[in-house]
Amino acid sequence: MSKPIIAIDMGGTRIKIGIVHHDILLDSTAIDAHSGKGLRYRLPYIQEAIENLLKQQGLSLSDMGGLGIASPGIIDSHRKRVLCIDKKFGDAPDINLEEWCLQTFNLPFCIENDARSALVGESKYGNAKDHDNAVLMTLGTGIGSAAVIEGKLLRGKHFTAGILGGHSVINYKGSICNCGNKGCVETEASTWNLVNIGKSEGLPASSVIDYEMIFNLAEKGNATALEIRNQSLQAWSACAVNLIHAYDPEILVLTGGIMASSSFIIPYLQQHIETYAWTPWGKVNIIEGKFPGTAALLGIAHLINN
């Protein structure tokens, strides 16, 4: 019988840490990411959080079957290294995380891109379970994506296949993205650039600008928030169509923090793709992920055992 897994989801704002057994999250905690300061600085805090979590559950390291990290960026899952990462945890490519895991916990180690991990979680245990061809799009600090084609997780020769949906160009005259390109989906509509978007549209600089605020103000009829909300919906819709055209899925799974407004987002995107996606065989259904906050933890735990 397999043992529980220590699973870590390295978000740009919060680092989630959980103990996962099969499809059950036994317990979890989270710490601030402070991702701009790098990952090495956070490793002792991650270790402390893991030790506290195990203690709360009455477990020891010998009870664990491994440790897995779902990380942003381009991940070499064979050599278990972060190859390239964009702004968040910038020192991660210089850290041998497998060595850290062995020295600190003496456990088997696995690392995978966070969006891929989330799609594995949804494919094995969630709302993509009955589909061999599925695409996932995460709406959060950035815009992530991943694809399962004919039952296999898409990675590609250089580990970039499927995960760069947020860096597909939807406005070639747009602003510079943090990847260096112009007019990426992330630049047009993601949390990391929302403050700049809000200021350019005239929202007060002193405001805490996030999508919860934008959707709430838009509901109240605020013209600026309505404009930002509509522009964002159009950007996410364009990204969805690009993903559908690229990977020919049966379903598109949406997840991430912005999906708190899913009752508004999903119908908008569904109508858009039914109008503009070239799918003569029928409709790609858009569904919300079953595990919007924990799919990556479930997915990386599954990858440890398989």
TrEMBL record:
This is ROK family protein. PANTHER family: BETA-GLUCOSIDE KINASE, ROK (REPRESSOR, ORF, KINASE) FAMILY. The lineage of its organism: Bacteria, Pseudomonadati, Bacteroidota, Flavobacteriia, Flavobacteriales. Pfam families: ROK. InterPro entries: ATPase_NBD, ROK.
